[in-house]
Amino acid sequence: MIFWYSQERKILLTLKISDMNKLLVGFTAGLIVGLLFAPAKGSETRESISNRGRDLKNKFNDLVDSITDKFDSLKDEAEYLGEQTRQTTRSFTNQVV
Fold this sequence. Notes:
- This protein is an all-alpha fold.
- It has one domain (9-96).
- The chain is built from 2 helices and no strands.
- The chain is elongated, with a radius of gyration of 32 Å.
């Protein structure tokens, strides 16, 4: 049993229930339409989704590997340039002193 403290709360609760009904009807309609117009059997669709997921995972791993390689290359280049700068600085200070 629901007790109403005021008319405003009753309207607010009614609106929330109405919105939930709309959501449920929309979800059900989408599910029915999806089942009616599905291009493949469920097992085929699940396999296709699984394959696409696997492909996306592989592409993501390739992207991560590529980015890692680029960062490693930049790190190596920065270390090389740092060493070159140190050598140039030492050479310059030896000439000044």
